[in-house]
């Protein structure tokens, strides 16, 4: 069958004919036909050879690329419950180490040994291929109403995890507003890419005042989306920020983009670090440290997601689809065939929010 | 204007012409045109004179009935933000005492002084009238897609609070399943009325295996709804319960209905008490107490909801409307005019899930 | 060597010469010389043959009794860290199933399979013998200053667990007082046995107003202890209870002793069930259920403890020893030799708080 | 009466005769005779005129210095409960704004308006004077056994708050060790001043492996203390750090001292920022940000404490005094009379851990 194959740590990607998966699936497994994959910065980092932690499965010299996924159950083992043939599913990406308490408890997003594998990224073949077999415990069923946008679920799951972590950690004080809601809180999301928009969506439907920041004017599609979700676009080079920031989300990984905003952080505020980029620097001085101390500011980096986060993501997709018509589908700015994927994997199309590979 | 007026602690209800509300609204207020009210057991308890804590506002000898509500903003004061004329809104019911820490922090559902008032129930006129004025901080905006079912939001808000409290209190151990989801957990909801169905819905979309229990066969509409939401109806007089119960929700308030089920409670399980009824008894023996101890069982009563719970309820309504088409709307089994309301307030129509008074 | 041996589910206990433990201890193990054991109701339940879940280790027809323990490290394997020969230690009692997430994460007190074993109770020989070998991961080091009272640590650990669970679950609202302390909260502990006194101690040093209730006048030693810890003894048959109860702790397992007090429970209050007894009954009516609902009352049963709870118990013992001189040591009302133990295991000595078997 | 008076924002401190406090104390107040004050960097910052946020009470041009305190109740109003004449007390420092939810709930350490006052620091006279009157709700009773070291309670309270916040926020995953304890966790405390030592003490008695880091060899008194508390001193210029750091505490406020250690942070680790200093810089690069993201690292600044934290601090002092004899008292490296205080307020004595002003 056809697959998109990479050779980490070397660069390159090719559409290649690989061995068909075997016929037999075990009791707990399902055979999945791939419907679509999303492409993200991690995929391009692997293709360019820059993402140093990417590696093939043990004993192989190449890797099937792809972690953002949507598929359909074609067949299933006799012990698979809660799934039927024809059901749409999304596979979770990280598979636990089987050793640390978090992995043993299904929270491999907090794996402590680092011995996990991630489909399409490190140590496990990914989902950019016609078919794959997976243990049903890694599959999240997609309800009918969101099949058209469910390819966004995997990136969303990571956003859900970070949001849930925020809500837990902010229980260190009374953080909600006087009326019991979050209507008084300003959230600034640095970056207007797919992750930035998903963060904006999640805060918006929870009642936060949401601002999306970039260092340029918005593309028309960004303007349209951000307006529809009741958020506000801010061009950092000329527009006014809100007076205080209660929550700062960095999706850029670029220190000069978010550290300078930290002097607007409110007392009791929080910062989520979500972006990962290489090479940029920024000078931190002791005044900033004092500011974080004096104002009880919390900051955390967040990566990956658990199956529960995927399941909650399913619910968010349904809310957003009907609350904000023509937002999620418009985030898919381009659909390509597998054969066309290498081109968009080497270079991000201008104006892209999310490019999708369609297998059907 | 027209209103449904009661005389607690005496019985009776009448449609009555009451004084129009004044013209002037203050800066933070909105003028609301009532669209619909739901009728629940509390309303009937007041009308029958059995609900002893019901009372008119201070200095009045009658009370405008009605706490389940949906209205539309007709006018608003200059300081009202986040609401526009024409917006649909639901008012929260309980207004805090202004003294205890919970009320001062917008969590009047945990008022400790007991000096709160509740619209249509105790000390504050309710929403069964053509118009009313309310401070905007008590108003929850209803997005367009769920206006048709938003009259269910007030009862739902209480269910959301109880669910959130459960999720917090069960953090006392690792309670999720091995795959990080709740797919391995069995929830039994005692009672198939509107509250029972709303609990079933909330557990269903979170991935729990949900069972709805009553002591009779389901009405056809109940069968239809319960099947659509992937739950299972259990006739307690003849059907088999699941082997273990991880979560038991009582919406009946009737001890003989749920206490006998408690010997099926799993280790680390929880029980939510939500129903309030008078007069029934059940003998508890020391073996049950020992069972609760030995199995780390948690149980809590839950009442009322905060504004945040209403806001989350809005999101659940959107999910359910599109996940389970023709469920929420079918829960509204009857719509009556205000003039017809006394009849359904005196006696519950047979087969009723939720009866609504429509003012438009 | 000498040991106290029982034959569950049959009654009886005898001092018996059993095989010496082997010479060789593995890398992670320590050889412990028993210093003392406490005797509690569970021991007497096993001796009397009434405690039905007690059982010998697999393949044996008898069981070494004893779970409350204090010992001294005589020898240790090469991989044991953080312990030296001569160190005093207390062994934790329950050993996890090795399967469920809680046991895999060291929280066997929340074991979900029920396949755990408990030293001296079910499936594992206990500590009423001259020597035993244990894996060092089950040993809690006892600092010098509390060696004289450390035999109380095992029962205390269970109290610590329950207290910690309470503090977590009460985060469902703002439960502390207006000044940030717990000085405004009334705790009523039902039962003045060792567990009742340990609960009183833990609440007292956290600032709660603590009341210890029994259905009789206090013994002189109880009066002395309760006064010293700033608590108040209440004879339920004649003394006045506090007007409201914020926290009710039952250590009796006897429904008629605590259920009638529940109508004094404050809004947002909590009940801990800790006692386990057989045979008594009490009639619960729907009004009580309604009361629990309307007042957001939480209740939980609590059993066993994790190693962390033991470690926190160590700290409590140090506080109490120096805060309340002559309290903990006076709780040890009798010390017997192993040969005398059967007598006090068959029948509780009058006026006993805690009877100890001394092996040195 | 005598007092130490400062003139913020100008530099200088003098021993001055000020007006006696009035005779009459209101119902909820107590008259306190000062026993001792501790001196910390904040005091010296005010004296030097460098601490810009320091200010006199409204309408005054000077400020009585002093926030670390210990006093004795000389008289009390009729409504004061839980305190007797002769009781030793410590006053909490910050007084809430009376407006925000946190202050209204007694959590002024999380004040959101910034309109709080702090005794001896900003807007409220401090405790370096012979007598003062305070509302009893701000007083923490000191049990007899720790009167000699209770002047350490105020700085300790801030450490307790930070520790509690850590334990709450780390509930985002399973963070304890496989045996349920924290024995597998390495804590590195940057700075060996009084705050660094108090942090080391709190982590040590909770079972963490604790390392105290400075950029020099320890003073003899530091060596002695750190060895007694089972911690390990690390001279950052030559000694080896532990391989992984699970918890990094900065008490220096000096970015070059702790940021370079962050590449040793374990997965799921946390960083507490506690130090506040001016002027130093350090370059942060995107790799560090990526590291925080990929490893789920959490970081928070922490300031001030609630009354509950003071009360828990009381308990820690008792534990430490008897667990580690001759540690806490040796932390008080110098005791001066009020007349000698200006000298030590202008310049920190060499080898100081904590200098105390004694008023008796």
Write a structural description.
Four copies of one chain form a homotetramer. Chain A has 360 residues and is an alpha/beta fold. Chain A has two domains: 169 residues, Quinone Oxidoreductase, Chain A, domain 1 (Alpha-Beta Complex), CATH 3.90.180.10; 144 residues, NAD(P)-binding Rossmann-like Domain (Rossmann fold, 3-Layer(aba) Sandwich). Chain A has ten helices and 20 strands. In chain A, helix 3 packs across helix 4 and helix 3 packs across helix 8. The longest helix of chain A is centred in the middle third of the chain and has 17 residues. The mean pLDDT of chain A is 96. Chains in contact: A-B, A-C, A-D, B-C, B-D, C-D. At the A-D interface, helix 3, strand 16, strand 17, helix 7 and strand 18 of A face helix 3, strand 16, strand 17, helix 7 and strand 18 of D. Strand 17 of chain B pairs antiparallel with strand 17 of chain C, so a sheet runs across the interface.
Overall form of chain A:
globular
Largest interface: A-D, 56 and 56 residues
Query: Radius of gyration of chain A in whole Å, from Cα?
Result: 21 Å
CATH topology of the largest domain in chain A: Quinone Oxidoreductase, Chain A, domain 1
What is the total domain count of chain A?
2
Secondary-structure arrangement, i.e. CATH architecture of the largest domain in chain A = Alpha-Beta Complex
With helices defined by DSSP (H or I, 4 residues minimum), what is the helix count of chain A? 10
Overall pLDDT metric of chain A: 96
Would you report the number of β strands of chain A? 20
Structural class of chain A: alpha/beta
Order of helices and strands of chain A: EEEHEEEEHEEEEHEHEHEEHEEHEHHEHE
Residue stretches of chain A low in confidence (pLDDT < 50, at least 5 long) are none
**Beta-strand proportion of chain A:** 25-35%
Oligomer: homotetramer
What composes the largest sheet of chain A? 7 strands, mixed
CATH H-level superfamily title of the largest domain in chain A: Medium-chain alcohol dehydrogenases, catalytic domain
How helix-rich are the residues of chain A, as a percent range? 10-25%
């Amino acid at each position: 069958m056809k697959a998109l194959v990479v050779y980490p740590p070397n660069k390159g990607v090719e559409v290649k004919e690989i061995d068909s998966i075997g016929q037999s699936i075990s009791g707990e497994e399902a055979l999945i036909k791939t419907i679509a994959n999303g492409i993200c910065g991690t995929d391009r980092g692997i293709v360019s050879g820059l993402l140093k932690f990417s590696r093939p499965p043990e004993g192989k010299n190449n890797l099937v690329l792809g972690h953002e996924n949507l598929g359909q159950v074609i067949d299933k083992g006799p012990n698979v419950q809660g799934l039927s043939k024809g059901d749409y599913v999304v596979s979770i990406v990280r598979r636990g180490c089987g050793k640390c308490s978090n992995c043993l408890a299904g929270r491999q997003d907090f794996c402590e040994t680092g011995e996990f594998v991630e489909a399409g990224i490190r140590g496990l073949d990914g989902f950019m291929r016609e078919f794959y077999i997976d243990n049903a415990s890694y599959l999240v069923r997609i309800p009918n109403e969101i099949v058209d946008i469910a390819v966004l679920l995997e990136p969303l799951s990571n956003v859900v995890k970070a949001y849930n972590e925020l809500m837990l950690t902010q229980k260190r004080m009374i953080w909600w507003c006087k009326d019991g809601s979050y209507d008084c809180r300003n959230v600034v999301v640095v970056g207007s890419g797919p992750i930035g928009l998903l963060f904006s969506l999640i805060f918006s439907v929870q009642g936060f005042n949401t601002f999306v920041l970039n260092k340029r004017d918005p593309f028309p599609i960004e303007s349209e989306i951000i307006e529809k979700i009741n958020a506000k676009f801010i061009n950092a080079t000329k527009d006014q920020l809100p007076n205080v920031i209660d929550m700062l989300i960095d999706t850029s990984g670029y220190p000069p983009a978010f550290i300078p905003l930290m002097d607007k952080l409110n007392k009791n505020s929080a910062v989520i670090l979500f972006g990962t980029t290489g090479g940029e620097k920024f000078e931190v001085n002791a005044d900033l440290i004092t500011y974080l101390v004096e104002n009880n500011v919390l900051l955390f980096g967040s990566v990956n997601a658990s199956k529960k986060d995927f399941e909650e993501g399913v619910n968010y997709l349904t809310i957003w689809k009907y609350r904000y018509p023509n937002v999620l589908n418009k985030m898919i700015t381009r659909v390509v065939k597998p054969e066309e994927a290498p081109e968009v994997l080497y270079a991000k199309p201008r104006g892209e929010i999310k490019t999708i590979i369609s297998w059907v």
